[in-house]
Design goal:
about 400 residues, alpha/beta, Rossmann fold, 3 domains, six-stranded mixed β-sheet, 14 helices, 14 strands
Length: about 400
């Protein structure tokens, strides 16, 4: 399954085999979205579907294999089920028959480890009612609600939907503005967008499109040009831009061309603030000055794409970092939220792309093992700005004062 190419809220359905997880998805959507069978283990791999739930809106539902699967193949399915915890915004644990034992307790512990909001639904109440004793035990032990439900007689569907609505974090629906808090009505934002071998034919890349839309949503004026036209256009432009955002690959050219009194940053850094762990990025970026011979760096791309001969993540960033540090460095690139095969402690540093194709939850989950292990993390744009000596200028639009900026080490 391709993960992470949808920025709508992700809801995962978990539980034992034949507890009615797939039936619950069908009931929530009033459609036959998921395959339903009385045979335990019908759902073998996570199935992801973009849907609309009345009263909630567009979401991505993920139907998972049973957490009680057995055998060598079953354990692989359980592993894939637990992988979903890193990409979802809300977990729904489906129980039945008043069973709440080690499989459920272990899964709840996984929810808590991943800081994942969750709720519990006791399904098949037409066969076995939820006992008050179990409901009270779950509430007292875990502090989360459990609700009885029957997909065959969904009389309390509104109660279930309301519980989902109140449990899912609002941050899953409301994304922080990219630049809206940096501009005022009528401000001009200049976007510098190179058209090179990596530019897609006939269109612009997603971060550029997202920023243009955000500027328009906040009553600004977006002006788009290539790096070669910046000097000529600035001479004609009146009023001057309130903000300039550049592709990170031409950061040095943009820094030279844009007057120092005009704020300058990059598309990747704008995305880093919206979706990434910006505070830890600022803490981690200066570690680039401490890299030593033999250090291994992990580069995380959020999507899979055609790799050009001068690819930003696989070619340019390794070249720039090697030249900047003067050290012999090793680089691993992991794309599209694939598994990181090496232990995270093998890495001296992690460099995350902007994350335009994935949710903030997915970016944060991706970085969490490194941050927990004390490994410095940074972002494409911030790393590029740092090695070119323009880091403080690049993050200045997002810091409240000069004292909040991070000096070179």
């Amino acid at each position: 399954m391709t993960k992470g190419r949808d920025t709508k809220p992700h809801i995962g359905i978990f539980g034992r085999r034949n507890n009615g997880k797939s039936s619950l998805i069908n009931a929530l959507t009033a459609q036959d979205i998921a395959i339903v069978s009385e045979v335990a283990g019908t759902t073998t791999d996570p199935v992801k579907k973009s849907i609309e739930i009345a009263g909630i809106g567009p979401v991505v539902m993920i139907d998972t294999a049973g957490i009680d699967d057995s055998g060598e193949l079953g354990m692989k399915r359980v592993g894939k089920t637990k992988d979903m915890l890193k990409i979802i915004d809300l977990a729904i644990l489906v129980i039945a028959g008043n069973e709440f034992d080690d499989p459920e307790k272990n899964l709840v512990q996984d929810f808590q480890t991943n800081d994942l909001p969750y709720l519990i639904i006791h399904n098949k109440t037409d066969e076995v009612e939820l006992t008050p004793e179990l409901a009270r035990l779950i509430k007292e032990t875990y502090g989360v609600p459990v609700i009885g439900f029957s997909v065959l007689h969904p009389a309390n569907m509104e109660e279930v939907i309301d519980l989902i609505r109140t449990t899912i974090p609002q941050t899953a629906f409301h994304r922080q503005t990219l630049v809206g808090d940096l501009i005022s009505y009528g401000d001009v934002v200049m976007l510098i967008t190179p058209i090179d071998i990596e530019a897609p034919e006939g269109r612009m890349i997603l971060p550029q499109v997202q920023v243009i839309r955000d500027v328009l949503d906040h009553d600004g004026i977006a002006v788009v040009c290539k790096e070669r036209e910046v000097d000529a256009f600035l001479k004609k432009m009146n009023p001057k831009p309130a903000l300039v955002i550049t592709d990170s690959q031409v950061f040095p050219k943009a820094d030279a061309a844009i007057p120092k009194e005009i704020p300058l940053t990059s598309f990747s850094i704008v995305l880093a603030r919206q979706k990434g762990d910006f505070i830890n990025y600022m803490k981690g970026t200066p570690y680039l000055s401490k890299l030593g011979d033999g250090d291994r760096l992990l580069i995380l791309e959020s999507c899979t794409h055609h790799v050009s001969c001068d690819d930003i993540g696989r070619v340019k960033i390794p070249r720039w970092l090697t030249n900047f540090s003067g050290k012999k460095l090793e680089f691993d690139v992991v794309a599209g939220l694939s598994k990181i095969t090496r232990p995270i402690t093998d890495y001296a540093m992690v460099i995350q792309c902007g994350g335009c194709m994935i949710t903030r939850k997915q970016v944060i989950s991706r970085l969490k093992p490194a941050i927990d292990a004390g490994i410095p993390v940074t972002n494409y744009g911030m790393a590029i700005a740092y090695v070119h000596g323009i880091y403080n200028r690049a993050i200045a639009p997002f810091t409240k004062s000069r004292s909040n900026q991070v000096d070179y080490l």
